[in-house]
Amino acid sequence: MVKVSLEQAARMATLQLEANESVHVLHPNQIIAFQGKSEQREDSLMKLPGMYRKKRFIQSRLYGPLQFMMGVPEGYSMAVVPIGIDDDLLYEFRHVLFYTEGITFTSHLQSVKNTLITQDLVKMQFRGPGTLGLLTTGPLYQMELHSDNPLYVDTNCLIAYPKQASLRLCVYGNTMASQHMNYHWEMTGQGKVLLQPCKPDRKLDEHMQGDSLFKRIIREVVPFGGIFIK
């Protein structure tokens, strides 16, 4: 199984792959060191749904035996989540940094209302066995859901939740509170939810910014485009 070691408050990770192991990296620019043969890294264009959800065009597949290191900008963290055969959590695809070979995923469409609020058309369900790497703002936390005691979560802070959980977009508190807060998910059910404690800062990550489609194509498709196109 791929070995993943988190370092420096989860801002760097070292991945060690044995023979016949591979990892799919959805943010190749975060690879900061690579120890292996050149042919053990293969970059390719993402499929169109992935381009839309990640606002990126290139993904990498790395084959063992090798090791490589990934890093994230100040304010961001990496988290590693084991994925089992019967895992039922639905994830925000934009947070997925990498996943190991053997993981499969299916998409689940959101309602029109929820899509407009979250700016995310689909959620992704992953099944293992394998390991999922996540990019979050701050360390990853877990909270338990209850069937009769709702949990209110800021829509920008929810990373994953059980497929069978009941969700309702809302605000809470008195009139002043509800008028000055972001939308929250009112959640009930069984299982755990995964949260990031900080709201995303679009200034820290290019894929969160409103770059034009043309600039993103040039930056990622043209050789050395990331160096010359700012």
TrEMBL record:
One Pfam entry name: AIM24
Database matches in SUPFAM superfamilies: TRAP-like
Entry protein name: AIM24 family protein
Lineage: Bacteria, Bacillati, Bacillota, Bacilli, Bacillales
Gene3D superfamilies per record: Mitochondrial biogenesis AIM24
Lineage: superkingdom: Bacteria
Family matches, as InterPro entries: AIM24, AIM24_sf, Trp_RNA-bd_attenuator-like_dom
